[in-house]
Amino acid sequence: GETITVRMDWGSRVPRTFARTGRIGNVYFLAHWFPKIGVLEDTGWNTRQFHGHTEFFSHFGVYDVRLTVPTAWTVGATGVEQSRRDLGNGLTTHHYYQADVHDFAWTTSPDYVEHREPFEEPGLPPVEMRLLMQPEHEGQAGRHFEATRAALKHYGEWFGPYPYEQITIVDPAWQSGAGGMEYPTLFTAGTRWLAPRHATQPESVTVHEAGHQFFYGIVANNEVDHAWLDEGLNTFAQARTLDVAFEPNYYTRRYFGGFIPWVFRDLRLHRDADGNRLHAYRPLARQDAQATPTWQYWPGSASAISYNKTALWLHTLERMIGWDVLQRAMATYFERWAFRHPTPDDFFAVINEVAGQDLGWFFDQVHRGSNVFDYGIDTFRSERNTGRGLFGEAGARQFIAADARDGYRTTVVVRRYGEGEFPVDVRVVFADGEEVRERWDGRERWRLFEYQRASQAVTAQVDPERVLLLDVNLTNNSATLEPRAPEAARKWSLAWLIWLQDHLLTYGFFV
Q: Fewer Cβ in 10 A, N or C end of the chain?
């Protein structure tokens, strides 16, 4: 019950920015710039040193900070500015104060263009939004405010209100390495000079970093050991917010060194899967169990496991128990653990409690194990009956009368190619429009379905509603017996054009 007071003097040289902290040109960004006190837990002091694959962990406290910078420079920092004092020598001291936060970051530059707008939404407390923009991006100020407003509104309504009176958005300097990072009541976004709206940038990064004020800033898990607990939950909520608040997202490529963007309007990205980068998770799915401390992950796999995998299994969980249940569970988790340091087991306990069921079988696979999920159609045949007789496998034979020769016997074999087990639906569609649905618990390695119908089957599909977003191979989820001439023509046309291009390049070399 005793307390101590520690006074410390230290000095530090500000480096050129390459990861969060430093200087580039006239822009200074200072994060994790002071000695931090360890976190006292039930098991003792947690003083884990910084690791390049992880972020940070510290206690909540009160920050009363004075920053002295050139008088003409703009300052942004955690908390709210209380006062400023001109020292008369070209320097000014800015006084910032904020209680109930676990870190303090700040930035200063003579180049920032400052904007302010209020956030006002019925049922939520008002917040002042303060935006510090680079001059070349000033035309995108409205988009930054719109994205921040969307995060404060939807996270606030779904999980719980933002409790501070101000939030500061910082547009980082180009190539500063400081973009896309969260700090209490302050975050850095990130954009480019050319930013098409349908590419949803800067909206995506702005919603994500503003969302971290809830999962990281208020509910403050140990990011060193359990980065997924804030990054994954936030990535999931980010995708939902973008879907609700913004226009559809389309695949975008950048050319000429990333300067020129091109939006492919015929390639829409679905944020629950594409936005959570299933393609990035797929090749790293077996590298580590998510329960492994983040700093011990296989090199290069932390993002796939912490961000992508978590968001994918949360979207899967949403499809299992429903958004209403999951939303109430996450709101309960937020309320119960605000301004505290929860563990993964705390999160799972709340989900089980609110869902009213034990989902340990699911969490054991997606968190405590490295199981890969992959269900697919192995065999799909629909053939005209050959005549009178018994057909089918032992124990499942069916007598076909002579007058049924005009019918079709359909065989569907569904396989579990991965280690993960998950209940899935199987849908078979026949030429006359009939649709048959089967429910398979997905535990065995394979399952046979047979049908006797007057019409031929045309398609078979496993998990037709895409409940299991963790399925690493969607190409084997369906099969068809319908002619696919357009697809074949497209395939061979592309192959021929590539051959022609190579031929002309070779010809040009000699000419």
A: N
For residue 332, give the CATH number of its domain: 1.10.390.10
Are 351 and 382 members of one domain? no
* Burial state string for 486-495 with b = 16 or more CB within 10 A and e = fewer than 16: eeeeeeeeee
By residue range, what is the domain housing residue 475?
A: 375-391+398-480
Q: Model confidence over 145-201: pLDDT tens digits?
A: 999 999 999 999 999 999 999 999 999 998 887 888 999 999 999 998 888 777 778
- Burial (CB < 10 A; 0-12, 13-18, 19+), residue 509, is exposed
C-alpha 194/C-alpha 436 separation (Å) is 49
| Contact by Cβ (8 Å): 184, 78 | yes
- The burial of 241, by beta-carbon neighbours within 10 Å (0-12 exposed, 13-18 middle, 19 or more buried), is given as buried
CA distance 171 to 166: 17
Contacts for 175 with CB less than 8 Å, ≥ 6 apart: 24
Q: How far apart, in whole angstroms, are the C-alpha atoms of residue 328 and residue 30?
A: 37
Each as own residue / partner, the long-range contacts of residues 67-71 (CB below 8 Å, 24 or more positions apart, any chain) are 67/93, 67/94, 67/96, 67/106, 67/108, 68/92, 68/93, 68/94, 69/94, 69/108, 70/110
CATH number for the domain harbouring residue 448: 2.60.40.10
Q: In this predicted model, what pLDDT tens digit does every residue of 9-31 receive, in sequence order? A: 999 899 988 778 899 999 999 99
Q: Which residue has the tokens 């404060």?
A: 152
Q: Please indicate, yes or no, whether residues 345 and 272 belong to a single structural domain of this protein.
A: yes
- pLDDT value at position 353? 98
* Cα–Cα nearest to 57, from 279, 175, 274, 216: 216
DSSP per residue, 69-89: EETT-EEEESSEEEEEEE-SS
Would you give the DSSP letter of residue 282?
G
Parallel/antiparallel/unpaired status of strands 186-188 and 166-170: parallel
Do 177 and 287 lie in a common domain? Answer: yes
